[in-house]
Amino acid sequence: MKITDYNFELPEKLIAKEPASERSSSKLLVVEDQLIDRTFLDIQDYLHEGDLLIVNDTKVFKARLNAFKSSGGKVEILLERKIDEFHALALTKSNRPLKENDILNIDESEVFIEILQKDDYLSKIKFSKNIEDVIEGYGVIPIPPYLNRDPQEEDYKRYQTVYANHGKERSSAAPTAGLHFENSLLDSIKNKGVNLASITLDIGLGTFKPITESDIPKHRMHSERIYLSEVTSDLINKTLRSNSKIISVGTTSLRCLEAVHNQFGEVRPFEGETDIFIYPGFKFNVVDSLITNFHLPKTTLLLLVSAFAGEDTIKKAYKHAINEEYMFFSYGDAMLLNRKKDT
Q: pLDDT digits over 176-221, tens only?
């Protein structure tokens, strides 16, 4: 497998730069034996009594900070994760590479950051004040870099799912498949007898990081925190023993479930880390169907959906989506995939 096999050309006009007028007004491409063009509200037609819909309830925090070097040069800081009240891992962007022991000023007062250690594309940094206070005072929501704009007031609402848990503000990117759900749609789905459960996977910046290794299995996957509760675990196992389906909202929910099963040979309550890398050839054991957006080329997410639905199926679906002018990436449209039969 070569990463060049997972590339495609996308017209600039099909990159969604703003959210849809309403969450559930997006298009939905249903990928079955044939490709069916629907709207996202129609997702409920494909969910049935006894099925289990699993969402990622993580919440995006204001992970983007602007800082300045002593020389006056600008530095953008994207927080990957908070380690404790004064330390974090972050991606730094500046005209010249930063070095260990460099000091960055957040403002002209006493708020500054020190670069402690550099590792791969991330740096360990130390804040002069409590991270939460700095984020609240100076942070902005980290909308994807390809939007090429500063966040607007609307992004603070629309780059969060309606079910994001206020106590779980730990992600530097949104679980974007969930952005399509309104509360009214979720209520309608539950009224059909569909069960709803949540997991937590705190999404890091690596979700947007292109694969640079030409030999795919050599790619180093970023690690993310996951939490699977006893309640959700019990619901999953009950559904697995039935004839009903488990539908994952987003690749993050799927990674959490398959990672736990991959580690223990079963689904059980778990809290810890995962760096599971899912690419074609992976054996799926939990998820039957996947609701997901259209992903960037040469990324781990495109490999994951290719593994799940089949490489030829994804290529046909993406070609159809481009021809029919579906909108791509985080604020774009969605598709419903089924697990290919031999995985």
A: 999 999 999 999 999 999 999 999 999 998 776 788 888 898 888 8
Degrees to nearest 5, angle at CA 250 with 294 and 307: 70
The CATH code of domain 3-60+160-338 reads 3.40.1780.10
Residue boundaries of the structural domains of the chain = 3-60+160-338, 64-139
Rounded Cα distance between 5 and 201, Å, is: 28
Cα→Cα distances 88→59, 65, 95, 103, 157, Å: 17, 13, 22, 15, 25
Cross-strand bridge partners of residue 290: 248, 337
Place of tokens 């000091």: 103
Tokens (6 digits) for 265: 């040979």
Tell me the β-bridge partners of 89: 81, 124
pLDDT tens digits for range 261-295: 999 999 999 999 999 999 999 999 999 999 999 99
Cα separation, 240 vs 54, in Å, equals 13
